[in-house]
Structures are given as C-alpha cells and as structure tokens.
Design a protein that fits this description.
This protein is mostly helical and about 120 residues long. It contains 3 helices and no strands. The radius of gyration is 20 Å and the shape is elongated.
C-alpha cells in the first residue's frame, strides 16, 4: 500500500510540473505575440490583427493542454465540473479565434487578388 501511495505522489508531482510548464509556455507565447503585434501596430502592418489572433490561439491551446493535464489529479466532482466548464469556455474561445483567423486570411487573399487585378 505504501508503494501505491508513493506512485500516486510521484504522478501528482509530475503532473503539477507538467501543468506549470505547459501554462508558462502558453503565457510566454501570448507575451511574444503581444510584443510582435505592438511592433506591427506601430509599423502600421495591416496583418497585425491576424498575428495577434494566431498568437492568442496558440496560447489558448497551451492553456487548454494544462487544463486537460489537470483532469488527471482532480479528486472531487465539484472540481471536475468547474474544470469541465473552463475547458468548454477555452475551447469555444479557441474556435472563435480560429474562425476569426480564417476570415482574416480570406480578407487578405481577396485584397491581394483585387490589388493584382488593378495592376
């Protein structure tokens, strides 16, 4: 029984470290995207919204990965319900951001075609 308790403790520690690592990477990605977008905005880059949206989407993916890892160590139904709600909300946000990216890419492609036709 002592071996089982130790194995559970090791798993808990590894999962906690994994959660922190994945979520820190998500925060780092978001900060890099924000800095790149700020520089793009100051340079009047027309694709700055797309750059920021892609960074946010990637960051949300890492944060969602952290939440999925967190499901391994959840002990109560209340925690699981809250965690499920967080996962659903982050998933919905990721879906909406990907939809915005797709629309932004389509707008860029249309404007490039229109510009090529004018030339």
């Amino acid at each position: 029984m002592d071996l089982l308790y130790q194995a559970e403790s090791v798993l808990h520690a590894v999962v906690q470290c994994g959660i922190l690592l994945v979520e820190y990477v998500g925060v780092f990605v978001l900060l890099v995207a924000a800095v790149k977008s700020t520089i793009g905005y100051l340079r009047k880059d027309p694709h700055v919204r797309l750059t920021l949206a892609e960074g946010i989407a990637l960051s949300l993916g890492f944060k969602l990965g952290g939440e999925v890892l967190r499901t391994v160590i959840v002990r109560d139904w209340d925690e699981l319900i809250v965690l499920g709600a967080i996962i659903v909300l982050r998933g919905a946000l990721a879906f909406l951001i990907h939809w915005e990216i797709k629309n932004g890419e389509n707008r860029i492609a249309i404007s490039k075609r229109a510009q090529e036709l004018e030339d």
